[in-house]
């Protein structure tokens, strides 16, 4: 293709404006809870939250937080890898992103849609170069291994890892990614041309090397006249977190001798669980991620890019780490699972500080970033997330705040004759407001209420008392009323099927 012609036709921003448009660097480690950042223990942050932060060492994030807008309540609506990623990329809730649950070969029902514009499609159309580095986990794995046509990229059944061919990359013109793979010191990637690279290096360190090389434009991988949008998706602190095969030894040493009671400081954590020693490796991984994020910040400084670059630090969901007595680190409405970091720095445009009022949902990230980049007019029709950019940069207009964040959990629905999951079942919905968390789980056969969780997060920040619904009827009625517009906005099957209409006051038509 003729690149000059291509840019003339598709560039939505005049050349002069394009040169001034901000770069965007979006860094999101996997499974990092909001509580695992050291600055929450310090002024001026500690008065904004009602939890004891993890005793984790994050010097770079602590500095960055003082330069950024920091949200106390960014919620991963469906706190599981693929669904969050689908919402992040498309600005739509899980019913319309295509990514209805975790992507794996025997779940063709969950797959990032090709027919809708992702955040990278919009940046690309606006004249940006777009780079994706690290874990994607938003595509249904198919037998399309570039080295072995007709085969999956792994032999495990069902396959989790996936290769994303160029036609499915949604505007990302630089690619160094994989689907999902959890051997942190032996990662692999497929590059822009589809060549596989097997690496002997801790994956966040390697991905940071690639990110810095991209920003420095080593090998002419991008057009230096264009702004760039780069996503860096680290896998740690995601499991495994069992040994120094999973994290850097220097980071592990910081936690190795500390008793578990000093590490698992949340009163809802059970230090006798088999998983408990993982806390040392989990926090070590966070510290390692902090150092790698700091290298990206240093590179922005040394390349002279820091002033005109929006930098975001977030995660796809959290990690329970022995809280609530459950082994599952995610996919639950608990704060450890849903509440993720959200820090946005844009020098001269976003005044640093804490925002403890905005409850941000996963689909809001895309339109908000586009708005901050001056591309609010290009937010695709059909985006369900809200553009809060005006709240960040003070430009005035921004979407009204929601009453809370929708909680979503889907399970497998129908299967075909081969056992592949071809529909999903919307097994639980709920709401996280500034005060309460409510989650309602239904029986797959009857559709009736099976179990509930209701917490007063103000009186009970560690969610240790599950309030019975029938003893809190007014609170439940109010929360169910507030769920209605959220379910409608998400085009959710609970809304269209009027699920639990005995509790949730859906309109008549
Ligand atoms: Ca994940």
Characterise this structure.
This protein is of the alpha/beta class and 509 residues long. It has 15 helices and 15 strands. The longest helix is centred in the middle third of the chain and has 25 residues, at 278-302. The N and C termini lie far apart (50 Å). Mean pLDDT is 96; it is low at 1-10. Bound molecules: calcium ion. Calcium ion binds at residues 30-31, 81, 238, 316-317.
Q: What secondary-structure arrangement, pairings included, does this model have?
A:
Elements lengths: L2 H8 L4 H6 L2 E5 L31 H7 L3 E7 L5 H10 L3 H4 L21 H7 L3 E7 L38 E5 L9 E4 L4 E3 L4 H13 L12 E6 L15 H4 L7 H4 L14 H25 L6 E6 L20 H4 E2 L1 E4 L7 E9 L3 H8 L16 H5 L11 E8 L11 E9 L3 E7 L6 E8 L16 H17 L3 H4 L13
The chain binds calcium ion (CA).
Calcium ion binds next to loops.
